[in-house]
């Protein structure tokens, strides 16, 4: 494995200085090495606080004829947070896509709050099952005002007045957005745009938030702000959060539970803080 001289400006997959830089291919090969077998369901259940609110069993899913998830399992309790980490192509975002209904599911089940939602459409999952998806891409409407963007979050509500009422509560909660409500979204900073994306998902009053790469493209000060907001939603409002995060250190510090995915399967599972101390996780994903 090629080694490079220590450089304090060089950062690994997560944060911090490293004296050995692993390429994407190196990480994939090393991750395959540790992928001996998936943790048993009993190990996943042991990480819960109470019963499973979101339960995935033996899920086989992908895109077209390509299967990405091979017998995937997941457990997270109500009001808990779970972070998925792993090498590129491990299937992390595919898990979120499958829960929300964006993939072709050929086997297994997804149960939320005791209801099997496997075959529901994204609209049905958002409107009747309380599942919201916060995309990793910049998804605000730049030429619409901040207020109009929030109203768009309630497009599935039966009455527009209901969406506007929830939007007002969002403005009360986040004065930073309230100050910008009449301005076009294109003038927002990166952190403010991410706050707007999260807030727009809240207009449908979901119970489960699927969060794809919340820190991507953000300056460090905004990353901290976004994780503070997600922490408030979890601990104050009781939201259940399933997250994919490329900044593995930040994601595991935040989450109650962490899963390491390799080739569409969970190969390690533990409490977030415990995985931070795991030598394999540290070497492959934390830069040390």
Question: Can you walk me through this structure?
Answer:
By secondary structure, this protein is an alpha/beta fold. It has one domain: Rossmann fold (3-Layer(aba) Sandwich). Helices cover 36% and strands 26% of the residues.
Which helices and strands appear, and what pairs or packs with what?
Blueprint: E1 7-11, E2 17-18, H1 24-34, H2 41-45, E3 52-63, E4 66-77, E5 81-85, H3 92-100, E6 104-112, E7 115-116, H4 122-128, E8 131-134, H5 146-152, H6 160-173, H7 175-178, H8 190-202, E9 208-212, H9 220-235, E10 240-244, H10 248-254, E11 257-262, E12 265-271, H11 272-276, H12 279-285
Summarize the structure.
The chain has 288 residues and is an alpha/beta fold. The protein has 12 helices and 12 strands.
List keywords for this structure.
alpha/beta; Rossmann fold; 36% helix; globular
Which geometry do the CA atoms define? Answer: globular
Terminal Cα span: 15 Å
| CATH superfamily caption | P-loop containing nucleotide triphosphate hydrolases
Top CATH class? Alpha Beta
Compute the number of strand runs: 12
Residue fraction in strands = 25-35%
Total domain units:
1
Summarize the main sheet. 6 strands, mixed
CATH architecture: 3-Layer(aba) Sandwich
CATH topology: Rossmann fold
- Helicity range: 25-40%
**Helix-strand makeup class:** alpha/beta
Radius of gyration: 19 Å
The number of helical elements comes to 12
